[in-house]
Write a structure and sequence with these properties.
Organism: Thauera aminoaromatica
Number of strands: 0
Protein name: Hemerythrin-like metal-binding protein
CATH superfamily: Hemerythrin-like
CATH class: Mainly Alpha
Helix content: over 70%
Low-confidence stretches: none
Domain Hemerythrin-like: 13-137
Mean pLDDT: 89
Keywords: Iron, Metal-binding
Structural class: mainly alpha
GO molecular function: metal ion binding
C-alpha cells in the first residue's frame, strides 16, 4: 500500500517539503518494482534513484539548517548518515537476493513487504520525529 503525503508531514520549508514528497514517490516506486521485479533493471534504477535522492536531500536539508542556525545540526547529520548506512545495507541485501540462484526475483517478491515496511518507517519516523523539530525554526526565523 503506498504512502500518501499528509498535511502532518509538512515541515514548513518549501524545499524540504518538496523533497519529502518526492522521497514518498520514490519509496512507492521501490515498493512497486519489488512486488513485481520481473525486470531487475527496474529494481536497480528505483533503488539507485532512492539512494541518490536521499543523499541529495540530506545535504540540502543540512545546508538549510546551517542557513537558519539550527542548533542540533551535528546530531541531525549523524542521523542522516545512519539512515544512508541503513539504506546501503538494504540495497546490498536486495542485490544479493537478486543474484542468488535460490532467491532471485521470487526471493525479492517474498521480501517486498518487509522491505517496504522498513522504507516507510525509515522515512516517516525521520520526518515525524527529527524533521518536525525544525518546524519552530522555520516559523520564527528569517534566513541570515
Amino acid at each position: 500500500m503506498p504512502i500518501f503525503w499528509r498535511p502532518q508531514f509538512r515541515i514548513g520549508h518549501d524545499d524540504i517539503d518538496a523533497d519529502h514528497r518526492y522521497l514518498i514517490l520514490l519509496i512507492n516506486t521501490v515498493e512497486l518494482v519489488l512486488r513485481f521485479p520481473d525486470d531487475p533493471r527496474n529494481v536497480e534504477l528505483a533503488l539507485t534513484e532512492l539512494r541518490r535522492y536521499a543523499e541529495d536531500h540530506f545535504e540540502r536539508e543540512e545546508r538549510i539548517q546551517i542557513a537558519y542556525g539550527y542548533l542540533h545540526l551535528d546530531q541531525h547529520k549523524l542521523e542522516h548518515r545512519a539512515l544512508l548506512a541503513e539504506l546501503d545495507i538494504l540495497v546490498q541485501r536486495i542485490h544479493a537476493t537478486l543474484e542468488d540462484s535460490d532467491g532471485g526475483v521470487e526471493g525479492v517478491k517474498a521480501q517486498s513487504g518487509e522491505i517496504t515496511a522498513f522504507l516507510r518507517k525509515w522515512l516517516v519516523d525521520h520526518v515525524m520525529k527529527s524533521d518536525m523539530q525544525l518546524v519552530p525554526l522555520f516559523r520564527k526565523s528569517v534566513v541570515r
